[in-house]
Amino acid sequence: MTTIRPYLPTDWPDVQRIYADGIATKVATFEATPKPQNQWESESVSGSAIVAEIPGSESLAGWAILWPVSDRCAYAGVAEVSVYVGSDARGAGVGKALLKELVTISEQLDIWTLQAGIFEENLPSIRLHEKCGFRIVGVRERLGALDGIWKNIVLMERRSSVAGT
After folding, report:
1. How far is Cα 81 from Cα 59, in angstroms, rounded to an integer?
2. Segments of 18-148 assigned E as strands
3. What is the pLDDT of residues 75-109, one digit of tens each?
4. From start to end of 8-105, where are the E strands?
5. Nearest-angstrom CA–CA distance, 24 and 70
6. Is 66 in contact with 106 (CB distance < 8 Å)?
7. Is 35 exposed, middle or buried (0-12, 13-18, 19+ CB in 10 A)?
């Protein structure tokens, strides 16, 4: 059974390892290296970072966090989600547990819209987001290049029925 809890700064080595795992897949992010800890902590939505633990494991299985989409006040209730699962824990329900908890946290923080930009070929992530109430808004064609290869990004969103009403 996966346990979800708030992120602690001492979790950073595992968060960074899982982040690097995701970068290595070439289907999770345009990032080439993990953000530094201070940037990851200070630029995210305060109080949104969570981690997943699997009993009996000495390291974290995954993490999730919210990022503001804009500094304009009109977008104060809109955030982008990041969900990363370590390579040794994929397919075990860790991502779903993290994303469901992140949705709950977002509503407690009065965030009314969550968005996710997912590489078109990352079908497991697209399906995960759909299972957690996200819908496909559209495809942003050739949004950016990774290792010289242009990538299409599936834009997904989830509107809260609780926050921002």
Report:
1. 22
2. 50-53, 62-68, 78-85, 113-119, 135-146
3. 999 999 999 999 988 888 999 999 999 999 999 99
4. 50-53, 62-68, 78-85
5. 28
6. yes
7. middle
